[in-house]
Amino acid sequence: MVFKSVVVIALMVPALAVSYYFAILLPAHNRAVLDFEKQKYADQQANEQLMIFKAEREDKVRKGKLDVCLAKADTDYLDSIRRNGTLSKKGGYDLDMAVANGIQRRKDSDIVECHRQFGK
Known about the structure:
Layout: H1 2-84, E1 86-87, E2 93-94, H2 97-118
Antiparallel strand pairs: 1-2
């Protein structure tokens, strides 16, 4: 009888240890791994959203700077026409053709420079 009890106890200890592992430890470990993967995925998604937001913000800033630069080129063009021309009776300005071409070339080069600096 004592021998049977010793054998039963000897068999029960490993059986309880294996049962404890599969019933409690392994599911807890799997939950922890799954929670870690979920957090890693959420962090990755948040990082991607942040990168998209930054890219959109930088694009808006770049477009704003391009608009300001183009407006400045246009303003400089009009100022040059006013400074170098004479007011005509029709409300426009009379300019020498060489001066007008020079002013137009300067405006075109300013526009190209704006696109070089702030364009994509």
